[in-house]
Amino acid sequence: MRHNKWSMDTKVIHENQMPDQETRAISSSITPAVAYAFPDVQTAAAVVAGEEEGIFYGRYGNPTLGKLEKKIASLEGGEDALGVASGMAAIATALLAFVKKDDHVLVTKDVYGGTYSFLASIAIRYGIQFDYVDCTDMALIKKSIKGNTKALFIETPSNPLLTILDMKKIAEVCKSFQIPLIVDNTFMTPYLQKPLEAGATIVVHSATKYINGHGDVLAGFIVGDKEPIHYMRKTLMGNLGQNLNAFDSYLILRGLKTMAVRMHRHCDNAMKVAEFLESHPSIKKVYYPGLPSHPQHVLAKKQMTLMGGIVSFEIDGDFQTATTFINSLKLAYISFSLGDPETLVQHPASMTHASIPTKEKIKFNISDQLIRLSLGLEDAQDIIDDIDQALSMVPVPDKITNSNK
Ligand SMILES: Cc1ncc(COP(=O)(O)O)c(C=O)c1O
After folding, report:
1. Could you give the domains of the chain?
2. Residue 398's pLDDT is what?
3. Residue nearest to atom 6 of ligand 1 (CA)
4. What average pLDDT score do residues 215-240 get?
């Protein structure tokens, strides 16, 4: 095989991406067709039944997406992949494939706000039960698994607190209870972390973030064995109409080619900014797995190639201090997304995690002082200078106390 020995750096460019046989074009072509012609009824019937490979209707896939799905499956080390219209479509589809009415799902305690919102508003409406559990604690996971628990859903690193979960240990627990483990790998990409190798059943992605990497596509992926992916495509994605279109698939194929170099820069910038923040008197706490002060730093180094491009931190002060700091930034954009070339900043309590009730936010440690940074591809010193000038706009709490004495 041509690619057996290739490293991930080469694979993100070349995997499943051969020049077009007819035109010799190296960049992918876009096939937006909805309708496909068959030589006879028998072939059409075999394709729709999944007995023969092929595309039969645009709502179930298209050739550009097919090429991308093969590439994502291979990068993640899975048998098959399904591309969908957003990360939330991937999460919803993966969960709905394993749980039905009266089933129960265990979820790690700090997850993306959209996952929380899906469970709280949609899953509950259809009789699906769920519990949040601290997945750093194996004994607690075991204790929380019920007779009707049909899946465990985790995010590592988590959003926004960057908790690192031991995927191998969690996968062992799941195997012993025969429940599938679903891992949201959005923050890492297959370049930095491979949940399937660690024993996960399914990997989900918001490809809106680092996989596409340019902030101009909404997309999601689900990777796993052929059988569950086929079920998700035919029964869930197709019926819910969550397909990923050919043009967006093309943009992701294009974005993927620079994923390795982008991830190095995101991670380098994140490390430099985390170190700067940790040394600054106005910062109470920094959450970054690359810092030796991170409680799961050793585990992070074991299961992640690099430490990621997201840094969260608590500013010393209150809601007002946090928002004054954010509003004072000049280079970083205030935005809900992450993984873009531009540095993005957000206030989880009032933005991405606003849908979580205050009581739950406290339980999940999402405080008013918490700020999340998605480090872009700019020069690290320019980002640090911007943060430094914005921090100079907020009073240092010690100074307030001293001047009041
Ligand atoms: C970890 C994580 N998973 C899933 C999603 C949802 O992705 P999308 O916006 O593509 O639906 C996000 C969005 O920010 C995320 O951060």
Report:
1. 8-256 (3.40.640.10), 260-404 (3.90.1150.10)
2. 61
3. 87
4. 96
